[in-house]
Amino acid sequence: MKHDRFQDLWDKLKNKSAQVGIIGLGYVGLPLAVTAAKKGMPVTGFDIDPSKIDALHKSDSYIEAVASEDLKSLLDAGTVAWTADFSQLSGMDVIVICVPTPLTEHRDPDLSFVTETTEVIAKHIKAGAMVVLESTTYPGTTAEVLTPILAKSGHVPGEEIFVGFSPEREDPGNKHFRTATIPKIVAGDGEAAGKLVTLFYENVVDAVVPVSTTQTAEAVKITENIFRAVNIALVNELKVIFDAMGIDVWEVIDGAGTKPFGFMPFYPGPGLGGHCIPIDPFYLTWKAREYELSTRFIELAGEINSNMPNYVVARLRETLDRELGIGLSRARVLIIGIAYKKNVSDMRESPSVRLMSLLNQAGSKVAFHDPHVPAIPKMREYPEFLGWQSLPFDDIRAEDFDAILISTDHDEVNYEALVNLGIPVIDTRNAIARRQLSEKNVTKA
Among the options 276, 284, 331, 425, which is catalytic? Predict the structure, then answer.
């Protein structure tokens, strides 16, 4: 039986006839669905959000990394289908889970999206199918959480169904790497699953990197994100120290970056954003407690990065007091860039929204301009900002604001025009100096 189920799926993967179901059509799932379909595999995308399904049926992409033209051509060719009917999972040979893995308010892992999705899969999965988790999580999740749930289907994991893990490595806004060109870490819960998950992704991406266990693959992704979180925290701390000394941290980093070995530049900012870097390291912190171990580096980095919005607001307060003699309670502040990262619309964990909240609490009148975010969407936090609209750039006037706070440095913004307004600019991204514009009214923060 083991050989028959394995061989049947192997053959389907070899000739690309395996039906692929992708659950969660966000920043990870939708690019993966389109990439797999472009490589000749039949794909069905699943999502609980009916607005996403409606948009996809109209070939209307809501993610920058996916072109609406590609959605239309794939839909016309019958290569993709989109549905909110999860009973159709019974026809899938490969099911990939791409759902969120947030933190609770106490910074514990919230695996509810993963577990609820896996419970649904267990009700519908057929013998001979494979399930792959792509959501970032702590080491042990696939083997200790997914596999037991899937065993409730009545199919024996490793013999009749197969389970794997392959962490997503999407980088929204990065034009140099796309889903197909980013090397893919893969692992299976058992030898047979490892071979199948490797073959599946070899059909989809250019380079596959198998590792020995799903725990190792989970640890790889967490390590990548901790590496960034810790190094960003380091330069954020250096920024605070060097600012106090009257030293430009950006110039320091540029200088250090000329060393051809032993240094890798990271850059400070107003705080961490995105789904991965602010959240994923704490999955390991939580898991480490099981082994009575502390993660001091990770927790310290989180503390530093989480405090950066407060530091930026303090610099804004100092500037307003020095330049205009007013406090935050009377200030009118325009935030440039509300997305968490330049040149994307992704709002997940955006420090810009935290800045808005702090200023709002201080009594400031706050507005924002973002060419990628016409209105603030629903978020897990800050419901008070739902629907706030971006101020059109042409409507930005000096008499309406006391200060401009650059939080996200989108390339489409006319920074020269902002500087020419003649009001104080708080620049958290070195956007003005990088463009060699006048820094007369600019305070770096």
Answer: 276
